[in-house]
Amino acid sequence: MSLDLPLVRGHVDPAVALRDSVAPAALVRAGEADVIVVDSSGFVLLDEAVASSSDTPTLRRLSGDEATRALEGSTASFIGVAGDRPIVALETSRDEADGAWEHLRAVGWRLDGDEAAVALTAVALAGWHATYHFCGRCGSPVSLESGGWAARCAACDRVEYPRQDPAIIVLVQDHDGRVLLAHNALWKPGFVSIIAGYVEAGESPDVTVAREVAEEVGIEIETPTYVATQPWPFGRSQMMGYRARTRQPRPTPQADGVEIEWARFYSREELTRTLESGEISAPGRASIAYALLADWYGTDLPSGPDGVGRN
Q1: Dihedrals phi, psi of 298, to nearest 5 degrees
Q2: Residues ≥6 apart with Cβ < 8 Å to 108
Q3: Domain ranges of the chain
Q4: Residues 6+ positions from 252 with CB-CB distance below 8 Å
Q5: What number does CATH give the domain 165-297?
Q6: Longest dimension (CA), the chain
Q7: How many CB atoms lie within 10 A of CB 43?
Q8: Is the pTM of this model over 0.85?
Q9: In what side-by-side order are the strands of the sheet with 142-145?
Q10: Per-residue pLDDT tens digits for 8-35
Q11: What values do phi and psi take at 243, rounded to 5?
């Protein structure tokens, strides 16, 4: 992998062999696990002392009576083992736990490797738990097992596991080396990113890249080159990153007018000017979109007029 992907760093042993025998809540009550707190929308609870400083943020660890109290009304999931300690994530509402909550999109790039890996897995599981309550076969309620890594139907005994949907994201350049950026109709004004989309049934990712670029901006590309993959839990996607060059030397993007409102090519000088002026804003630093753009740009992307760097 040739990109610096902030959420794909560090190592957490998933300890798959322990999932069927481990009881996350029992580990918490016995004080035998590091306990972190997340919510299903992607927020993580940070250590307040560090969150309020310029130091590298860390996930807050609960222990003792505080951890036991937090179990009430929470879903406990076994994340794995890091530093010889089991990790349990408590999934709760931000209304139920005071503290320094930050969205993983915003803070993920600042976490150190193991912290990022723990948070990524915990948020991904929490998102799945929040949306999968009924069996996809018969519609009956499901219950969690295997430390939160499986959901079993109470009626037909079907077992479902957390999944990630394959998606592509591609940095497209024309023959002058300019990068293609687009504004989605659902985004805030001025926010731009590179082309992305889900892989359809029976479709290879390479074919998806060409199809998405053609559908969204009416441009044909040469054979794309795979770069790296990043799990992205805000939509349970497995984002496969590509680079591609346009077939024509200097094509004019034709936005589809439905998903994409407008699109254009930017040179490095144009991107610098428009980002620094606040005319446009870039993807967050935790994303593979930012990593692909920064790799093309040659360094971190410029900040806006307020001097604040990208989240």
Answers
A1: 105, -10
A2: 6, 7, 116, 119, 120, 286
A3: 16-131, 165-297
A4: none
A5: 3.90.79.10
A6: 65
A7: 22
A8: yes
A9: 142-145, 150-153, 159-160
A10: 988 899 999 999 999 999 999 999 999 9
A11: -120, 150
